[in-house]
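Q: I have two molecules that I believe assemble together. Could you output structure tokens for the complex as a whole instead of separate predictions?
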Amino acid sequence: MIEPDEEVGKNRELEVYLRSFRPVVPKPLSVTLPLRDVRRSLALLAASLATVVLLVAALIHHPWIGQIRRYHDSVKTDSKRFHSEQPLTIGAANALLTSSNSFQAAIDQTSHFEGAIAIPRDKRSALAVLSEGEVVQQRKKP
Amino acid sequence: MSDQSDIAEIEWLYREHGPALVLFASAIAGESSRAQDVVQQVFLKLIRDGSLKGVTEKRAYVFACVRNTMLNEVKGRWRGVSLDPETAWFDPPMRDYAAESNLRQSLIALPEDQRQVVVLHVWGELTFSEIADVLNVSPNTAASRYRYALAKLRDSMRGKAETHAKGKGEIS
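A: Yes, here they are, computed for all two components at once.
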């Protein structure tokens, strides 16, 4: 039979022994940001994304974006209409002068024609031959 | 929602009593990983709801919260504590892991009501009056459960230690 005092003493010893075992330290409290703040941040992010999307949509459909697009389209069409792979001939120049509104417009449109055709090395252009003949004739003159 | 000073106090409570709270939850559930999750859940709820305002016995209150949450968690799917042999509940003195296992098994072998009182008094450092509040019993009942539990622990641990020593002797 254990006396009460003896039991108390034994219990104290056992308590001291038990307390020498330290409970394992848990992992730190993982979420410091309260859930409500997380929700608020997500709502803000969604609102910003929606604003950006609306801005982009508004810019795309803005009238002056349409004007710029129409201008580019007209330039493309014009360049297709006037562009010719043939060199400018007298006939083409006459046609331009008759179809254009003004002389200046006709001159502008000549820029869409290709330059002179490259002449092979062993050949000479008719203009060159004629101009040489003219020089010879001038030399023969006293 | 708690303000900054409340959050600081709750975090301090977690740092100070987290180990004993996880041990207490483990003593109810039998495994420490679920116990850790439950303790974290309790503290995050305290931060979110600001439910520590107006509480006088904060230490006893968080132990009661952990107990209630743990019991709700295991309700319906848990019948008795099963020992998880992989996870230590304690950092043993002198890295004596055999003694740690001995103590853990002896605690698991106790009846649940006695095991909770031992953990609350020895490692939670709660008085019998506080334990009575946590467990909804009288202080005398808490004290008597504690005495019974210590007697059983002493016998159980002595028996296991002797068996361990004999086993070692036979091997050597």
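A: One point stands out. The first helix of chain B runs from residue 4 to 29.
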